[in-house]
Amino acid sequence: MARINRRELTNLLGAVGVVAILGGLAFGLPAADRSLPAERAVPDDEPYSAGAGVTVVPPSGAVLDVTGTRPGDSQGTVLFRVGPVRYAIAVRPFRGDLAAAADRLRKRIVDTTGYQVTSAQLTVSTAGGLAGLQGGYTAPGRGGRYSVFVADEHTIEVTISGNDLDLGRTLPRIEASTRTLRQNGEPR
Q1: Same domain, yes or no: 32 and 73
Q2: Is residue 8 a part of any domain in this protein?
Q3: Under 8 Å between Cβ of 153 and 93
Q4: Could you tell me the residue range of the domain that residue 67 belongs to?
């Protein structure tokens, strides 16, 4: 029978230690991540960064869903939940006019299985004077609204979705929040 020398024993213990650490990382970190809530409280009186210099004041009662929030320097997204209603803002680089941006967003909506745009587009503007277009859409068991703005070679796309009853209750607060959208350099 072969004997294990001290060096081989040290190597074996080191390898077992590395495997134990990797196992802990592979199983422990996801378990810890799942134990943390995805939603975080946000002040409803302070602007929140959606990305690329775009800010919005969240509606009262909103929570931030960190699973859908990725602000960045050149683009970004922010996802709020107001009860069961989903309120998302996406900022993306874009070279084109407002009509082209609205067409692109409408196409993305109708390209999703079961989704249909339901109304004509109407003009909308923010408190700071950012002009946009808005419309409505439906999906199985859900309704929604969308708005799109173009500023500083970016689109600012707002989508709101929920069941009709919840939308009816929260839409005024969310629309008031959407009017607070601001782009860098826009006067307060």
Answers
A1: no
A2: yes
A3: yes
A4: 39-178
**Rounded Cα–Cα distance for residues 126 and 47 (Å):** 14
Amino acid, res. 145: R
How far is 171 from 167, CA to CA, in rounded Å? Answer: 5
Per-residue pLDDT of the chain (188 residues; tens, 9 = 90+): 677 788 887 887 888 888 878 777 777 656 555 555 578 889 888 999 999 999 999 999 999 999 999 999 999 999 999 999 999 999 999 999 999 999 999 999 999 999 999 978 999 999 999 999 999 999 888 999 999 999 999 999 999 999 989 999 999 999 999 999 999 844 43
Pairing state of beta strands 154-162 and 142-151? antiparallel
Domain membership flag for residue 188: no
Same domain, 96 and 135: yes
